[in-house]
Amino acid sequence: MRILKHLFDNNQAWAEHINTENPGFFETLSRQQAPKYLWIGCADSRVPANEIVGLLPGELFVHRNVANVVIQTDMNCLSVIQYAVDVLKVQHIIVCGHYGCGGVQAAIQDQDLGLIDNWLREIKELYYQHESLLDDLSDQQERLDRMCELNVIRQVYNVCHTTIVQQAWKRGQSLSVHGWIYCLKDGLLRDLSLCVTHPEEVAAYYRQSAMCMG
Fold first, then answer.
1. How far apart, in whole angstroms, are the C-alpha atoms of residue 28 and residue 34?
2. 21 near 56, Cβ under 8 Å?
3. Taking the mean position of all CA atoms in its chain, how far away is CA 195?
4. What is the pTM assigned to this prediction?
5. E strand or H helix that includes residue 160
6. Closest listed residue to residue 212, CA positions, set 183, 188, 192
């Protein structure tokens, strides 16, 4: 007996709807994968990557983890980036965080949370770097939201400094790295005015964006 039968029913209804709207869609999709975008986002169940940008399966290559972190020692994330850039030849890497991120909130709280503390260490360090700025904000929600924005900026910076992206730019490959944030309360994306297309732009964009967040 299938305990999760309703999910299989949902899947069948979804596939039938897609086939009705676009006959042969899955057959065509099975033969190729050619997305233009790599999405690096949070694992939060409320932030479904394809749906919020209105893209179909096959149009968005996706990597998600807690708090949309890009760490230079994370072979999983780096492998996704390399495959997307070197094999799929995506033209855009989108780092998308979201307001009210539980991972970011956990990182800035002074308490022992166990294993996840190791994963969130970089966000903790980012918080300490901007602690005085954030302490000037009296509203706790505003403080968390600002920290979520700062985290996206930092992760864009990290993506741009991977050897994968650096080498792609060096060989003249067309590749842009973007920083966005999603609002759970209205379902809308915000552009953090980060669009890096060349290694020489990285430091300037990072400083400018961090200052604007201040």
1. 11
2. no
3. 14
4. 0.91
5. helix 140-160
6. 192
| Residue showing tokens 């930092």 | 154
- Is 42 a residue of the active site? yes
User: Which tokens hold the place of 212?
Assistant: 């604007």
End-to-end CA distance of the chain: 56
Report which of 66, 63, 88 is spatially closest to residue 77, judged by C-alpha positions: 63
**Residue 44 catalytic?**
yes
Q: Which of 17, 46, 198, 207 is catalytic?
A: 46
Which CA distances in Å does 137 have to 115, 133, 170, 180, 210? 30, 7, 41, 22, 16
101 catalytically annotated: yes
Top-confidence residue, 206 or 85 = 85
The full 3-state SS of 71-121, as one line of letters, equals CCCCHHHHHHHHHHHHHCCCCEEEEEEECCCHHHHHHHCCCCCCCHHHHCH
User: What one-letter code names the amino acid at 29?
Assistant: L
Question: pLDDT-derived band of residue 206, with 50, 70 and 90 as boundaries?
Answer: low
Which one of 63, 92, 98, 154 is the catalytic residue? Answer: 98
